[in-house]
Amino acid sequence: MTVTTETTDETLTLEAFADTIVPGEKRSLGDRAVAGAAPGPGAVAAGALDLLHTEATGVTAGLPYLAAALNGHATAYAAEHGFDLDVAVPPFVALSSDNREALVRALTAPGHPEKEGWVALALFCNMAFDSAAHLHTADAIAAGHPGLAAMGITTPDADGLWRFPGYSYGRQLANVHPATSVDGSPA
Amino acid sequence: MSTAETTEKTDVLIVGSGFGGAITAYHLAAGGADVTILERGPWLETADFEHDFLLGSSYTRIFDFTVGSGMSILGGNCVGGGSVVYFAAMPRAPRFVFERHGSIGRRMWPAEITRDKLDPWYDRVAESIPVTQQTWQDVTYSGGLWAAACHHSGRTANPTPVAIDNAKCTNCNWMMAGCKFDAKRSLLTNYLPAALAHGARIRPLHEVQQISRTDDGGYRVAYRVVDDEDYRVLQGAGTIDAKIVVLAAGAGATPVILQRSEPALGQMPHGVGRYFSGNGERLNTAIIDEERVREVLGLVREDGVPYEANQIGKGPTVASWDRLDERLPEYERYSLEQLYFPPGLGTILAQVPGADGVSWFGKDKKEILKRWRSWLTIFLMTEDDNEGVFGPPPPTGNAIRISQQMLGRGALSYDPTPNTRHGWELADAECKEILEKDGIARVAPWTNDVVGAYTVHPLASCRLGDDPATSALHPNNELRGHPGIFVTDGSAVPGALTVNPAMTISALAERAVPGIVAAARERGVAVTYGAPAPDGATSARRHVLELLKERP
To answer: Domain B8-537 has what CATH class?
Structure first.
């Protein structure tokens, strides 16, 4: 498959958006999409682009338009704040991580006319990190999925199911309300 | 498969198979009526439930997240409805709730419904599900931590009554994906199999769109068949004629069906699609300081770890009810319940404690995600102001579906009033006071700026009442002006309950059944009332049969 400039720009732009939601460390010295604002892997390394390209999300068909709109907003943001953007990368990618964050805050704020689209995009970027919704969870954990690992989600039993034999401190830890009815409800 | 060319017939057509649908279906079928249930979601059984966040697994097949303007609704979308995805907390509503005035300046519940009057119906549900009280040995680490923190700040805390067989529970915390271990006593384990045994039919993936009248005084219900994988795709269509229609599609869907039916049925009562309540719900996330849990509260697990148990458990096990005090002013009463919210939807709205401004995404948010095992989620159920209103219905269903499953855009708008905000602020502050005392945790509420407020317990969008101007239903659950249509789901509940509402929704559905039986009999259906509990138990039935002798 030939990778077109458009595809590359779209990918870089969406990666930069995902990296704004859950920031991560750069994948290489020359990594422009990932800003390197936080240690450890972020949403991009967690597979945000794979999830966004999963048709079941319902956002896949809209990605080219979202990426183009995001770059339009980035260009306007730079003009408004009086700075030039590096033209070697898409405008949103050219923003610093602080400016990306400020722009995403504005786009997802109550009252922004495009809020719902940006919130949906953010939701799936976060989901790639916190639940790896593009992968079977047990497989993702076995493969060391960085988001699930960072959150400390435990490994399931051999049959792929979770069971926690230890679950309780096993003793009364508070007085119950004096007005509790016999079935245990509020009176 | 049914097609639009053939119209089938049934005595009673029930829309939805959650609490309001399953309970009425069981009693009507057991009483001899021909009952058909149309359920828009799929029919999954124990073997189908998965521990998997992959899109397309049971988690997304049976669960809906409908975003509105200012309010998003999370709810079940499967045979068994909310009971399959819920956390099975089953407290009765406190006495003062039935005396609430809410936004209308006078008692909003029908005069004939009080806690005392509802208790025999609660008893029927408790026997049928069954509902049991948890012991402190059943209480999870997270519930225990919440109890200990409440005690440390001079408050009480109660193990909640639940619909869980604790002997079977593995504390996997996958309740929202359906219970793999048959420990949760969902409707798949009681009312629904009993209804089927008495001849009721359930048709999954049948989404009711509209109701119209038939020439003989009955109703014609039109449905579309939903694709079993991509819910955005509707396939067949059909109609079923019924003498009685019971609407129990959930408070996010029942009013939408009625709105869409208005051109055919005639004017709807004012309360249809208005007075929606999100049960005053709100969440707070606490990031626990493990060492302070050990030092201040003296808690340590068997393995020596103080807590780190967010992933372990079975939803809510402990609630603090100190503010459920009838002497307090309305909008200042609430419960504070320990809860679990799984990843997927359960982290995005959490904010960074102590942050200035927006913190639901970004590098500081990532730092708290890395502390996820030490999260404790507290669920606030307050008194809201019934301020939700449904706009014009979408072309089909109750939402424009965005994703293949789960995510959709609905027509609900909700602009919280100062009363509602006041309750949230008080509850947030108390939560913070309890958990930040002596450095046990840092706490922040979830943001309402991303998807608006949110509720897992939508209520009141088609509510009961004595006043035609502010309610949709007569006190017997019949739709005003449309005899033979009954509403028995959460939309019938007049307002926020300050506790988890499934028990009250169920008790109201049980209470509605004798009236539905009487209406069916008037329409020539050979049906009687008086079935025992689904497993044959009869002690709770005795009390309600006594009560029914007093009804006019």
So the answer is: alpha beta
